[in-house]
Amino acid sequence: MELVDTSIGIKEILGDIPILAASIRVTKRCNAFCKHCYGNSGEPFNNELTTREIKKLIDVYSDEFGVKKIFFTGGEPFARGDIVEILQYAYYKNMEILISTNGSLLTKDILKEIQNINFSMFQISIDGPKEIHNKIRGDGFFEKAINALKLLKELNFKNVTIATCLMKENYDQINKIIDIVVEYEVDIYSLVLLLVAGRANSELDVTSQELKLAINDLFSAYRKYKGKFKLAENSIIPPALVPANLREEGLHKQFEVCCAFPNIIGIEANGDVAPCDGFFTFPEYIAGNIRESSVLDIWERSNVFSKLSELNRLDIKGVCSKCIFLSTCAGSCRASAYAYYKDIHAPFPTCQKLYEEGLFPPDCIVGE
């Protein structure tokens, strides 16, 4: 399915510019200090949103905007003592709930309290086998993540997901991570490419050759264990990087739309508003604060969202302009493009680097 080029085009169809998905960083607090954290999490803000404010925000999303999908992230969401209450409230409002956690604070008692929620994604971060994961996140985090997976399985949670952020320290560990996915009967696997923001710098990023190796290992494991797990739709894998034989089976289609950008909105733990979770690092993309203006006013009147509403999603530079998937992929993650090139119309960095080094699939270039 091809994308409508702009939010204005969506308005012409729907009569309004909708928010299709939303995220809330419920806290900046995190008990880990990962070197690749684009949110620069660790210590909490001294003015984080209260339980009442987050519930009110959920009301606004649900009742005023009709948002159906909400993603809870952090920091570490389970570092909040009221996270169960927040999740249950979103469930009460009939929202599709996704959550990302390092798993280290999950207990059987906590999970029993949210066992009734049908999560669309319950994501646990695992960035490698024990030695690699603990090196990246801290001693004991691997063991706690595995324990969380065991508890989720024991309590029959659905859509349990393992997510891996690809970087130099783990690009050659994908096969071992997939073995963990299969061993613990995890439903979904998500490979996420590094967002160069916050604590994550370009030195952590993989080379094009390392990326190709990781991608090849991922799809080889997918073939090997076909039917044992799904690949996550939120994996930031451009469809052009899906092997040709799997594209023939249609696998690439689930990666064609990275997200609903620019028809999404992100709320920081202090109430700041940005186009999505990946833009909080950039002050120029902070559209306002929900303690100073209503979400509706920010969405309809801020310069940030006004400019994005006029953005032609197909007006992307570089290799993206030549790619056969432009009309459906639209340059993939715009936060990554802006972080790397400081240009919202820039190509997706991963694909551009592959193209410049002659490694981009030639059958995905128009006219080649």
TrEMBL record:
Positions of the Radical SAM core domain: 16-230
- CC cofactor: [4Fe-4S] cluster
Q: Which Gene3D superfamilies match?
A: Aldolase class I
Protein keywords: 4Fe-4S, Iron, Iron-sulfur, Metal-binding, S-adenosyl-L-methionine
In terms of InterPro entries, this protein maps to: 4Fe4S-binding_SPASM_dom (IPR023885), Aldolase_TIM (IPR013785), Elp3/MiaA/NifB-like_rSAM (IPR006638), PqqE-like (IPR017200), Radical_SAM_PqqE_MftC-like (IPR050377), rSAM (IPR007197), rSAM_sf (IPR058240)
Q: Organism's domain of life?
A: Bacteria
Q: What is this protein called?
A: Radical SAM core domain-containing protein
Q: Does the keyword tRNA processing apply?
A: no
